[in-house]
Task: structure prediction
Amino acid sequence: MKNKSVIGRVVKTVSHSKFLIALSLVFSVASVVLSLYIPVLAGRAIDGIASAGSVDFGIVIRALVTLAVCGTQSAHLRRTPLKREEQPQKRSVQRTKR
Result:
């Protein structure tokens, strides 16, 4: 019973931020998908280097450029800061005299 009341209070508290929560969820999913795609791209670049004498530079360069874009976008999606008005307020700590 107690868990339901806690969940209810949390939902009530964050209900005004539905759009930001949905946007955060979308960015999180996109970041994970891009992070999981990076090893696939690295494998394609390695496959482009079949042996010492036969390197398909078109495949390798395309895979490396896509890898760089996916890596930077994934990192950017993880680190996108909130606007100043959306950041939580800092609480001031009052010190007591002894």
